[in-house]
Design brief:
Elements lengths: L11 H12 L4 E3 L10 E5 L4 E5 L2 E3 L2 E2 L3 E5 L2 E5 L7 E2 L2 E5 L4 E5 L2 E2 L8 E4 L4 E5 L10 E5 L4 E5 L11 E4 L3 E4 L11 E5 L4 E9 L2 E10 L2 E4 L10 E8 L4 E8 L9 E5 L2 E6 L10 E5 L4 E11 L2 E11 L4 E3 L2
């Protein structure tokens, strides 16, 4: 709940009226916490200095359509219309448009979406109703040098995909050579080197342990197929302050939830610490470049043999975790 600041007797009425109008304006509903979920959109918006959270699953095959923002150290549920209920979308901040783009995802009826949405900090706008590019459990990043969104892989509604797409004013399939088909992998842009890093993932018959890089319009392998531990349903971010690709979460080939935060360095997975959030997958993990910290929300873990959604909230400062109560 927001509490107004009163500076003087003469200003009480003015401040109170502003407070009342802001808290009851269309689009804002105060609440304490978005609640347990996994496979949700979770991304930092550097223009509006907020973390956007959208959708995800609260139960198996039960997806949500709610939109939340974390700003000024509190959660606010946005009472607005947006994408249909879904999870496992691809999302990226667009550096020229100064907005967040959301593509695809999996819906409650099992549908795989192909639509494209834009978030400007206060409302959603649909940019494309549908396209040739339909996917869930995929990833996308913004390429500064090309002013384009790069997307790869995922489930296309019928099979696991190995296609690479670029979006400028529409989706275009590119790249002759690409990583093998996969979904549920980690992918992020190293802004210092202007390289996209892709690690792990899942296909119909198993997991991947390889690392690939995208630069100068093509994919190249950065590791051998077995140089690292296989992993899927994890998330990668780029820590601009420390100039490192950082990853957390996921599950290994034995279906064990991973609790160790790690970095990717020269094609190798380098563990940092396993003290912090419990092992989990399908998390929300994003980087706040203003404050130089990572934020993690939710995910799915095992509790007494059952997989359950989580609603805990954590901050990573490059060395240790702190839970945000």
């Amino acid at each position: 709940m927001r509490i107004p600041t009163i500076y003087s007797i003469g200003g009480v009425l003015v401040l109170s009226l502003f407070f009342f109008a802001f808290n009851n304006a269309p689009g804002y509903v105060d609440d304490a916490n978005p609640g347990p979920r996994w496979g949700h959109v979770f991304i930092y918006d550097p223009v509006n200095e907020q973390v956007l959270l959208f959708g995800g699953a609260k139960e198996r095959r039960v997806f949500l359509d709610d939109t939340w923002v974390w700003e000024n150290d509190q959660w606010t549920k946005m009472d607005i219309k947006g994408p249909e209920a879904r999870g496992f979308c691809a999302v990226s901040f667009h550096g020229q448009r100064n907005t967040i783009l959301l593509h695809g995802g999996r819906g409650n009826d099992g549908v795989t979406y192909s639509d494209l949405w834009e978030w400007d900090g206060r409302q959603w706008k649909q940019l494309e109703m549908e396209s040739d590019f339909k996917a869930d459990h995929h990833q996308m990043v913004y390429l500064d040098a090309e002013n384009a969104i790069l997307a790869f892989g995922g489930w296309n509604g019928e099979n696991v995909s190995g296609n690479t797409w670029l979006w400028k004013n529409g989706w275009e399939k590119v790249a002759q050579t690409s990583p093998p088909k996969r979904a549920s992998f980690g992918m992020t842009l190293d802004k210092g080197k202007q390289k996209v890093h892709l690690y792990g993932g899942l296909w119909i018959n198993g997991q991947y342990a390889d690392i690939w890089e995208w630069a100068l319009g093509k994919w190249t392998p950065a590791s051998g197929p077995y140089d690292n531990s296989s992993l899927d349903h994890h998330t990668l971010i780029f820590d601009e302050k420390r100039n490192k690709v950082v990853g957390f979460g996921g599950k290994n080939y034995r279906y064990r939830m991973q609790q160790t935060i790690f970095t990717l360095e020269e094609g190798k997975v380098v563990p940092i610490t396993n003290e912090g959030p419990s092992g989990r997958h399908s998390i929300g993990f994003t980087y706040d470049n203003k404050n130089g910290v990572g934020y993690l929300f939710g995910g799915k873990e095992y509790q007494e043999g059952e997989q359950v959604g989580l609603d805990d909230f954590w901050r990573w400062d490059g060395e240790q975790w702190e839970e945000i109560k």
